[in-house]
Amino acid sequence: MYIKLIFLTYLFTVAFTDDIKRENHVLVLTKDNFEGAVKDKNVLVEFYAPWCGHCKALEPEYAKAAESLSKEGSELLLAKVDATAETELAEQHGVRGYPTIKFFREGKVMEYSGGRTADDIIRWLKKKTGPPATELTAETAKSFVEGQEVVVVGFFKDQDSADAKVFKSVASEMDDFNFGITSDDAVYTELKASKDGVTLFKKFDEGRNDFEEEYTEEALKKFLKSNSLPLVVEFNHETAQKIFGGDIKAHNLLFISKSSSDYESKLTTFRKIAKEFKGKVLFVTIDIDEDDHERIIEFFGLKKEEAPTMRLIKLEEEMSKFKPETAGIDESDIRDFVNGVMDGKIKQHLLSEDVPEGWDKEPVKVLVGKNFNEVAFDKSKNVLVEFYAPWCGHCKQLAPIYDELGEKYKDNPSVVIAKMDATANELEHTKINSFPTIKLYKKDTNEVVEYNGERTLEGINKFIETDGEYGKAAPDEIKKPKEEDEEEEKDDEQAKRDEL
Fold first, then answer.
1. Residue 480 confidence (pLDDT)
2. N or C: which end of the chain has fewer CB within 10 A?
3. Mean pLDDT of the 146-152 span
4. What is the rounded distance in angstroms from the CA atom of residue 402 to the CA atom of residue 468?
5. Which of the following is catalytic: 27, 44, 55, 418?
6. How far apart are CA 263 and CA 79, in angstroms?
7. Once rounded to an integer, what is the mean pLDDT over residues 417-426?
């Protein structure tokens, strides 16, 4: 009776999912069919917005993964929810950005942490539902290694040994690539393993790396992360997450045209120096001919005609950018630049536009990096500064109010109303995390107070009149966008953050 009940339940769930509309093998879920679709099954669900660029980029890979799993006859399912239409569902599952991807595994929910290609998606799902490492045989070993860009194989005669347990534990945690394990002598011979150990096989650079350190999870993870990326990584949608989500926080970026006649020779030189900094600095190329890279080029204040050129970034609490002192990119130029940054001899590079002619002729003064300190830290005045982005919708809404504020104070000798394009100008002492940000630089003390009140003429005026007391942001609010800004910041900022 119990077995019959299980069988009937299985038939019901299969029939239920069969009734759900599919688009390119992906289940289309709504509030009416969601619970039945995910109950007691393994379903990856993407909450998306039709207008989201990252969702559009993911769509073909997501469909490809769904189709591959379907052809395998896998019980793993992929589904999607239009979060802009199914707002109740989105709210219920804490969706605050797009795409948000969650894995519903037999009643439990976890955040998806894998990559954005079909192979990444399938690998992650199989890792979460199957053994951490595939058992390799003489028949499967060669195809396992040759079928993927990067794989890791553990060679252990005793798979219950302490070293093997470390390997399996790491394999269960790391989703970046597939793990295999074997005790078969024929596999040792096929894959040229002379003893027990761990080998990372890859289709670039050295071709393979053998783990020679003490078997700890920390050491093995570090070994795999440092050897699984090429010496020089090409920046694109597939590699971005690995580049910026990795443990190496210093990246030397080469902006170059892949179609240029000297591309290969420049790449060879770049790769040669990358070897010297392996594990310390990640070397990355960015193709300036790609339309998708226009914003990252703009972010560094570059023009295409300046390529080939380098910039180095450090991803610490705040991103720091560094510019070479020379224009060349031969071996000594690259080496000296990276050493200069790492040794602290080359200082942070801050963007600044030239001071515009007539910057102080209008009621709202125009600040850039080059004149900011002189104006904002004038102790004889209260200086209110709006930090804005040209593409920010809230900044555009604020513009007429801010212009009106400027008119109100244009004849007041002790108050300055100013603005600065924070995408084109940077300050060493002030980091802007959302747009618009409004700060008051107080006279006499130069104390800086951030405004967190309503963006109305009355509210901002009261902020000035109370010497920054009304609407003042608490310290823990300064780095956190306000609730009403979050939706637009998803639209404006997410693309910018993810691309960088």
1. 41
2. N
3. 91
4. 17
5. 55
6. 42
7. 93
Q: Which of 152, 232, 392, 460 is catalytic?
A: 392
Confidence band (pLDDT; 50, 70, 90) for 492? very low
HEC secondary structure over the chain? CHHHHHHHHHHHHHHHHHHCCEECCEEECCCCCHHHHHCCCEEEEEEECCCCHHHHHHHHHHHHHHHHHHHHCCCCEEEEEECCCCHHHHHHCCCCCCCEEEEEECCEEEECCCCCCHHHHHHHHHHHHCCCCEECCCCCHHHHHHCCCEEEEEECCCCCCHHHHHHHHHHHHCCCCEEEEECCHHHHHHCCCCCCEEEEEECCCCCEEECCCCCCHHHHHHHHHHHCCCCEEECCHHHHHHHHCCCCCEEEEEEECCCCCCHHHHHHHHHHHHHHCCCCCEEEEEECCCHHHHHHHHHCCCCHHHCCEEEEEEECCCEEEECCCCCCCCHHHHHHHHHHHHCCCCCCCCCCCCCCCCCCCCCEEEECCCCHHHHHCCCCCEEEEEEECCCCHHHHHHHHHHHHHHHHHCCCCCEEEEEEECCCCCCCCCCCCCCCEEEEECCCCCCEEEECCCCCHHHHHHHHHCCCCCCECCHHHCCCCCHHHHHHHHHHHHHHHHHC
52 classed as catalytic: yes
Using the predicted structure, report yes or no on whether residue 437 has a pLDDT greater than 70.
Answer: yes
- Taking CB atoms within 8 Å and a gap of at least 24, the contacts of 216-219 are 216/166, 217/166, 217/169, 217/170
Give me 149's structure tokens: 């860009």
Name the token pair of 45: 């669900």
Q: How far is CA 346 from CA 302, 339, 392, 428, in A?
A: 19, 9, 33, 14
- 271 by Cβ neighbours in 10 Å (0-12 / 13-18 / 19+) ranks as middle
CB 331 within 8 A of CB 269: yes
Point out the catalytic residue in the list 89, 385, 395, 427.
395
Active site residue 392: yes
Q: Which residue has the tokens 């194989």?
A: 153
Return the exposure string of 146-158: e unless at least 16 CB atoms fall within 10 Å of the residue's CB, then b.
Answer: eeeebbbbbbbee
Give the closest residue to 304 by CA, choosing from 322, 288, 321. Answer: 288
Q: Is 427 a catalytic residue?
A: no
CA gap 101, 113 in Å, rounded:
8
Question: pLDDT band at 116, cuts 50/70/90?
Answer: confident
For 289-309, give one letter per residue: b (16+ CB within 10 A) or e. Answer: eeeebeebbebbbbeeeebbb
In angstroms, the CA 363 to CA 409 distance is: 8
d(CA 462, CA 482): 19
Report residue 14's pLDDT band, with 50, 70 and 90 as the boundaries: very low
Q: Model pTM? A: 0.63
